[in-house]
Every structure is written in C-alpha cells, then in structure tokens.
Amino acid sequence: MSLQAVLLQQLTNAVMLGTIYGLIAIGFSLFFGTLDIIQFAHGDVYMLGGFAALTVAAALTSAAASAPALAVPLVFVAGAALTALAGVAFGRLAVRPLLGSPPLITLLATLAGGIALREAVRLFYPNGTAAQRFPSLFPAGSVELGGVLIRYDNFFILAIGLGVFAATALLVNRTRLGRAIRAISQDREAAAMMGVDLDRTLDLCFVLGSALAGVAGALYGAYYNQVIFTMGLTGGLIGFSAATIGGLGHILGAVVGGYLFALLQTLASALLPGGSEYRDVFAFLVVILFLMFRPTGILGERQAERV
Amino acid sequence: MGKRLQRVSLAVGLEVVAYGWFLAFLRVESALGSLALVAAAAALAVALARAGALAWLRRELDSGVARAAAIFGLALAATFPALVRDNPYWIFTLNLTLLYVLVGLGLNLQTGTTGLVNLAGAAFYGTGAYTAALLARDAGVPGVASLAAGTLAAAAVGALLFAPVLKLRGHYLALVTIAFGVIFHLVLNNTEALGGPQGIYGIPDLVLGPWNLQRSPRLAGVELHFYANYFWLLLALAAAAVWWAWRVYDSPVGLVLNAIRDDPWVAGTSGVNLPRWKLAAFTAGNVLIGVAGSIYAFMIGYISPENFTFEESLFMLSIIILGAMDSVPGVVTASVLLVVLTEKLRAIQDYRFLLYGVLVVAMLIFRQQGLWPPPWRRYGLPAAAPSSGGGAAR
Fold this sequence. Notes:
The complex is a heterodimer. By secondary structure, chain A is mainly alpha-helical. Chain A contains 11 helices and 4 strands, in the order H-H-H-H-E-E-E-H-H-H-H-E-H-H-H. Chain A has a two-stranded antiparallel sheet with strand order 1-4. The model of chain A has no long low-confidence stretch (mean pLDDT 87). Chain B has 16 helices and 4 strands. In chain B, the strands form 2 sheets. A two-stranded antiparallel sheet of chain B has the order 1-2. A two-stranded antiparallel sheet of chain B has the order 3-4. Chain B is globular, with a radius of gyration of 21 Å. Chain B starts with a helix and ends in a 28-residue tail after the last helix.
C-alpha cells in the first residue's frame, strides 16, 4: 500500500476508535462536572456494556430473531439500558455514600469497585477469563474509497456514534434535565436551593454516562468482534485521558479528546517502528506531557485553584 | 523501677501469647479449627478494645517500655523459621508479609502521610525487581550492588516521573501514576531484551559477603529451608523501616508532610517548600518499595510482567486503606492480615481480587479511618505519656 493509503486506513481506524473513546470520555467529564469525582470504575461499566450487548445479541440469535433492522437497535438499546442500570446501582452503592469525603477516598473506592466488577465478570460469566466472540451485527461487505477498503460496519459504527453524540448534546443543552445537570456542575448547593432535585438528577447523570459507556462497549464488540473482561482497564484509562486532554467537565471536550487520543494511537502504530505494540505507550506518554503543560485540557477554562 | 519491670513483663507475656496463637493458627489445618481460633482472638480483641486496651497500647508504644518489648519481640520472631521448619511454605508467606510491610510503609509515606496517591506501586516494585535481576544475571553485578541499584532505580524513575507533575492536583497525579503502571506492563511484555511475557529466568543466588541466601542455613545441627535466610534479612529490614517510619511520623517532618496533605495552601504560606517535601516523600517511599522489589526478585528467582499488574498496585494500596492512613502499626497489622489470611484461605485464591475490591469499598464506606487509625497529634498539649517530638513543629 502507498503511504497515502496507509494513512487513510489509519485515519478510518482513528475515527472508529475515537468515536468509542469519546463516548467513554463523556461519562468521565459528566461525573467530574457534577460530582467533582473521577469515577474510575467507569471503564469497567463500559466493559459491562460490551457484555450486556453480547448477552442481548446471543439471546436474540437463539430466539432466531436476527434480522439486522430489528436486532441492531435492540442490542444497543437493551445493552445500554442494562449498563445504565448497573451504573446507577454502582453509583448508589459505591460513589454516592462517599461524596463528602476527600477526593482520595472516592478515587480508591471507585478503583476498587471497578476491580470488583471486572473480577465478577471474569469469575461468573461462563468461561469469562477468555475473550468472548461478539456476533457480527451489521451486513458484511465493504466499499472502496480512495484506494482503501472500508467495511460497511464502519459506517454503522460512525452513524450510531454521531447519533448518540448529537442526542447527548441535545439532552444537555436543550432539556430541563440538561439544564439541571449544568446547574449542578456550576454549583451543587445553589442548584439544590433553586429547586433542582439533586438525588434524581445525580441518578440520571449515572444513567446517562453509563448508557453512553454501554453503547461504547457494544460498538467495541461490533468493531473487534470480541469482548473481554480486561477491556475496561485500558478503556477506562483511555477515556479518562481523553476527557483530560479535552478538558474535564467539558462534554464537547471529551469528544474532541477521544478523537485526538485515537489519532495519536493510530499515528504511532503507522509511523513508529514496532508501533502497534507500543502505540498505547506513546499515547500515554503524550498525555503525561500534555498534563505538564496544559492540565486543564484543550477546552477547559484556565481556572484558578478553588479554595 | 519495679513498676517498669511489671510493664515490661506484661508486654513480653502478651507477645508470647500472640506468637503462640499465631503459630497455632498456622498449624491448624481444618477450616473449623482456624475459624474457632480467629473467633476466639476476635472476641478477645473486641473485649480488650472495649476495656480501653487500644489507648493503653498506644501509650505503651510511646513509652520506654516499647524498646524492650520490641527487642524481645524481634528475638521471638527470629525463631519462626525454626518453629515451622517442616513447612517452608509458611516461611515464604511470612517473607511476603514482610515485603508488603516494606511496600506498605513506602506507600503510606507517599499516600497516607503526604497525600500523594501512588497507583503504580507494583510498577515501582517491578522496577526494583527487574533492575536487580537483570544486573545480577546479565552483568554479573554482585548481590549488594544489584540490590542497591534496584532500589536506586525505583527511586530515580519515581522522581523523574513525579518531578514534572508536582504542581498537579490529585486526580491528574493519579492519572500519571496509573498511566505509568500500564506503560511499565506494556513495555515489559513487548520488549524482548527485558524477557518479554516470559519474564526473567535464572536469577542468580543472592550473596551478601560470606552469606549465600540461597543456601540452606544450618543452626545447631538443624537444617532450615533457604527461605529462612530471607526471613531474617527481611525481618531486620522491616524492623529498621518500621523504626524509621515511626521516627519520621513523630518528627516535625511528619507534621510538615501531614500539613501538605491536609492543606497545601496553609502549608505553603507557612513556609513549607511544597515541591521539595513532596518529592522527598515520594522518593523516600519509592526507596522502600524498590528495595522490597529487588529482594523479591532474588527470593523467587523468576519474575514476569504478570507479577507487576495494576491489580497488584491496588492490592498494595489496600494495605494502607485497611490498616489506616498514616499509621505505622496499621501497615504492619494489615499486611499480616491480608497476606496470611489469603494464604490460609487458599480455597478462595481465585476470588481474592474480587474480595479485595469489595473489602476496600466496604472499608471506605463503613470504616474510613481504617483498623488502626493514628491518634490526634498532641503537640504542645500535656502529653498522655512522656513521648518524643513534643513542642511546636517549626
């Protein structure tokens, strides 16, 4: 392949991965904005999303109702709903009771809770230690664009991702719930005094963030045709990095950060010798450098330390 | 003086009882017997705690009696390999416990005392282990030098990683350490020169002067497993580290580090050089972690990337969460509890990370202060016992 074709191929790859990363990163930003915490188990919630979608897809196949027009929406909606449920439960059990505590405490609690989720899947999902094959949901085949073959499922993944991004933006910017979320992220106490139902809104934040992670998990499964219980560790780390690059607490920033991180990864694997093995090393090194010079991210405001 | 003798003998007696209980606990094979022993000890501990034994213990630990009791306790502990010589596995388990005491003290200095979250404990431990192992095997560096090099490597890598991000707030520091842990694991797995996923085999014997630690020691005609050597080495190191950590805790330095953790603004405006002390605390903690890692490599003779995962880092942190932040006795208690109990309950080995995850979350929700929280500092107040470190800190 010519260099141009390689770059184009990698660019497609970056767009797919960036969509998935962005969906994860929105959750991190959302939780940081509203609760002032890093929800480190969010990566494992994303992993649960992959497994939830897999379970739904498997149930559909055995029920012989696998017409794609029906199966795809079902897998994504039901998978996201299951993940949202798990996310809310996790928030209620392990995050919300600790809200008044120092940041270190919530950090450790969510990390440990994430390990518990991951281990639970490994131990209790049938043959959970091995990677699970994810059924192909989209019609097979590909189309040639600029000398590069692009599989149909790439278009579906991109379309679903963009659709969900748009829906999230509408939800946050145009609805009553979105206004409540934005109010809470500006000032939790003032929002409560103005009549925002804190409990309910925070629950809905967990629903929203976890559902997005659920979609991301399902997309990951559809893209790689497999899910594995460890995918939450790197997935979460990448999501957090993406949210940080974009500016924590900033929803659009999370999406931008997701694409940027994917671009870094794919560039590394295309251009560096031995790159595909070291692509994450390179990407994380860049993130560390980034934190040194602009810790508030691309879109985050340069805020003074709040006292 | 008679009063002092009384107190010392009480402490010594308690130590003998505890040691006897511990040996019995290891000996008992049946699950029912172990449970009965644990239940008896727990009941006794709760009853004693209700009767104010913790405050008493704390006072005694602060007093001159502590030194005599500590020396006797160390001598008692040193007999351990001889008493379980038919089952070297328990020596090995205790060695692991002592390694975790070293690691726990290091992490406690960083995370508990100074508030710098280190989520890459296993990676720094691994830095020490890999450096020492590679130098000893491929460059033929002698034992002491490779231990020192492993220790230095962990400290230096930590300082290099940490120095540029000193200004960042907690969340970002956490991200940097996690990212480092993941990078470390990826690089080990993918670099053939570092052994790749197979790791490093055939690490040579650890020889310190005339003492080959891999050779079974012979005491009064009785041959012990070579783990006994490591036990004594680690016991001495852990005792020294505990003593040192205690001195730091009790000194103005401990107070300065606490101030950095609790309110960096006030600490900074009171003249504390924040970056310098943060870096010092982080590096000193990594020295302890690195020395433990280096010894670990020699002791088990084979290391692979799977020994140094993120889960392992979190297990290390759970020691200080269980024990209590900034508590030296807490670190020791939690290391013994976590390591010995896991080995004792080998049937649930596969579930251990699940249990740790749940345990840490439960601990943080229901008993955030840990098992053995440190008392309030009493500078300037009439002390409960003649203790060191009185007066203002600066």
